[in-house]
Amino acid sequence: MRPHRTILFTLLLMITTFPFAFAQEESASLPSAEISDMSGKIVNTASIAHPGENLLILGWKSDSKSALLCLDAFTLIKNEIAASTKTKVIMINFDPAQNAKTVEKDIKEHQLTFDAYLDPNEDFSRAAAISYLPVMLIVDQNNKIVYRKAAFYLGDEQLILGELKKLNPR
């Protein structure tokens, strides 16, 4: 009699939890947080202009080798991103304020030409629930985060490019 109870309990559990296994989370909006550009001007993340374009946000720290590799990889394909998608690419650095000179040095050394912002207090990082760097966020024209990827491996830039092309090709 006992095996029937366990089978019945297992079936009941599967039936009640099955609908939740395929529940999809609604896209989160780009959170509002104050960050600064490289000149020190305060900018609100919700107001970073990208009318008619999607937004690719690359979050990084200068002590992360994989983050620098990520930025280098996206620098190599920036012309392809511009030619094949309607996307503005920005990078947000989460280093403490005392590392601003290191960040500037890294930007020059790696020849990064994307719009650069600083978030030394990690306000945006907390608001966007970023816990692992580097992170890549794709924001659509309605300010909804439609794709998120933490960590970077060579080839991930092509994955992100594919997602951008699906979202809004030229």
As laid out across the biggest beta sheet, the strand order is 1-8-7-4-5-6-2-3
Shape: globular
The average pLDDT is 86
Largest sheet: 8 strands, mixed
Helix content: 25-40%
Question: Can you tell me about this structure?
Answer:
The protein is an alpha+beta fold and about 170 residues long. The chain contains six helices and eight strands. It has helices at about 1-20, 65-75, 80-85, 100-110, 125, 155-165, and strands spanning about 30, 35, 40-45, 55-60, 85-95, 115-120, 135-140, 145-150. An eight-stranded mixed beta sheet has the order 1-8-7-4-5-6-2-3, covered by helices on one side.
Short overview:
The protein is an alpha+beta fold and about 170 residues long. The chain has six helices and eight strands.
Task: Give the topology.
Blueprint: H1 2-21, E1 28-29, E2 34-37, E3 42-44, E4 54-60, H2 65-76, H3 78-84, E5 87-93, H4 100-109, E6 115-118, H5 123-127, E7 135-139, E8 144-150, H6 156-167
Parallel strand pairs: 4-5, 5-6
Antiparallel strand pairs: 1-8, 2-3, 2-6, 4-7, 7-8
Features:
170 residues; alpha+beta; Glutaredoxin; 8-stranded mixed β-sheet; 6 helices; 8 strands; globular
